[in-house]
Task: structure prediction
Amino acid sequence: MSTEVLKKSPAPALDRGGPGGRGPGGQDDDGREGPELFYDPARFGLWLFLGTLTMMFIGFTSAYMVRRLAPDWIQLRPPGLLWANTAALLLSSGTLEVARRRLRGWNVAGVGPWLRATGALGALFLAGQLAAWRVLVSRGYFVGSSPHNSFFYLLSGVHGVHLVVGLIWFGVVLVKARRLAYTPGQDGLGMFATYWHFLTGLWVYLLLLFFVF
Amino acid sequence: MAHAPEAHAGEAHAHAEEAFIWKYVFSKNHRIIGIQYYITAMVMALVAGLLAMLIRLQLAWPARDWAFLAKIFPMGYDAGGGFGVMRPEFYAMLFTMHGTIMVFFVLSTAPVSGFGNLLIPLQSGARDMAFPFLNGLSYWTFLVGCVVILTSFFVGAGAAAGGWTAYPPLSALKGAVPGSETGQTFWIVGMVFFIAAFTMGGLNFVTTIINLRTKGLSPLRMPMTLWAMFLVAVLGLLAFPALIAACIMLIFDRHFGTSFFLPTGLVLNNAPMLGPDGKFLHQGGSPLLWQHLFWFLGHPEVYILMLPALGFTSDILTNFARKPLFGYKSMVGAMCAIGGLSFIVWGHHMFVSGMNPYLAMAFAVGTILIAVPSAVKVFNWLATLRGARIRFNTPMLWAMGVVSLFISGGLSGVWLAQSAPDIQLHDTMFVAAHFHLIMAGAALFGVFGATSYWFPKMFGRMMNDTLGKAHFWFTFIAYYCTFFPMHYIGIAGHLRRIYDPYQYEFLKPLQPINEFITISALVLGVSQILFFINFFWSAFAGKKAGENPWEANGLEWTTASPPPHGNWPGAIPAVHRWPYEYANPDFPKDHVMQTEPLTAAEQQEKAAEGPSRHEH
Result:
């Protein structure tokens, strides 16, 4: 989906005006405005997709809440590495936002370094997550040894898979940025940023779910 | 995506020169993808229908030696020494796969993915779906799911056997029954592919309907079919993720030794399931957790099957009654209410799970509430038919069949909605009767109706009306003969999913009824040959259809049959009124297309009265 979505120019060329065209400006014969374009379809589709991801994690969360009530629940002690990983992911969202603002602010040369930092921090996060799993395994916390472990491996794994998808998308974004495919002054990185920030927020939520609530 | 008309004409030309493989196989055109979905669902229906026939043979004559079946299905029958008696584990695989394939791969696929893809761009006035590439990807993902599900019969010890609901621990322990081995893994993988495909389709449906409607097509001018497709897609996007989550956890339980759904103290083949340390391998999990997650999807899922049929029926009834749809706004409201309520009633599938009676009562009240919008729909249909000069063509017969099944199946739903009668009737043939009438039957009849009605938009030709009517009457009568007696045997205590009912003394007198049901089911199955003949013969050699053979009003009837690439050769027409403008005395014809501009008199009336019925 990601590449297909990216092929669309940031400002979609929809049937505007013209005979039978739709969109703002087209007045219906009975004096009423035709239905406004609700939203850019690609962005709208992305938000819908994030909605389904949210529903999936609501499903996991409700399972977590129910399972936590069983007597065999042993709280997992988080490896310290997790906090460093979280910091890397939060930073990557920050650098992405800087890159996005540079692009919107006509500073094309300033986009590249911040974009590369985003990808590097994302990859660092993933490597850190794998290292955290290894730490847990070395301490004897296996996926099946207690339900809290199971949920930790499961949910951090599902989150990680989506981050891998994010990194693949990032690769496409990076190539496009190199080729100067993004129009300066426009929010060409907006969709990728939406997905990336969603994953950052999701990880923070998972941390809170695992170790705070 | 939408294009300017001029740009589009050039593009259509480019597409005409595309190779066959890109035009018809790996197509991105919504109509081709719809037909691909539809035909794949047909093949899956054929398989699942054959499984049903084997189930029925077993229930009528359980000890009979079926030597020829043993030759066809060596894995399912004890073939040695002239015996052809079905194996119990094969019976469990049959009902599991019949349910799974029918619910997901046939009755979710044909009406939603099939007709949704065909009709959404046509009815909303779009060139194609919002994301054509994603649409094509969706079909091929779905096809992988089909292949995985079908091959599961031939891997390891056979297909999944834990019911279409795949309740743990049966589905979570690899050694529980033969079907719990590789077959169950394939079931999960197949479902994940299906859900991924359905989600891609749902993203497309919602985005297209929200964003790409033509000028003037306000929500309250949308045909009921379009409303149904929108709601179905929203339901799917919200409900299926819960099953994905559950499936992932089930895979972990099966293969990685976790205990999400597996409780302490499991005993397998008379041996406690202990680990090397002498403790139970699985501890503390909750099988009920799976049921909650499954039915959180499962109940919206039955409306995913139903709502398209209700939409088709509203469109077809008004056309062949030549009358405006009675209570359009209440119809839309009723559909939204049904969709909304479907998310808070899943517990009525679990009344015997030992839930708190107060909770059961809450679920029961929510479920009974669904009867209100359902009754609104039935009332409006009947009011639409009242005093009408009905044209009895094939699509109309199917639509009236949907109304009939919706009433008769809905009435037993009111029984099952309440926890007290449900605890008695749970897991009996009464339940099988109920859902085959309302969910399976109405959805199936809706698909048949939609097929004969929108066939011109699929292939540019008409289906044969005589053959269609014969198919309808055989199917209608055989359908009721098959499923209506199941109410009776269910109340008499006949369990569903039972290999040999006559092992119990009190069920022995029911064998003649079961034989009658089986013969009806065989007639029902054989009658479908009429449909297959009609479908394929008409697709190639049927009478050529004009733009608007049924004298209907919707946008899809303003373009050629079949529609060209891009749906309208020129500009996309604008919409000025609702799609149910039949029998308006101010017009010479008895129907007024959605694209017909308001007359001067109508504009005056509108200005004087504010919103009128043209405003819909």
Remarks:
- Residues 287-321 of chain B form the longest helix (35 residues).
- The CA atoms of residues 235 and 300 of chain B lie 6 Å apart.
- Residues 1-15 of chain B have pLDDT under 50 and may be disordered.
- Strands of chain B lie at 77-78, 85-86, 267-268, 271-272.
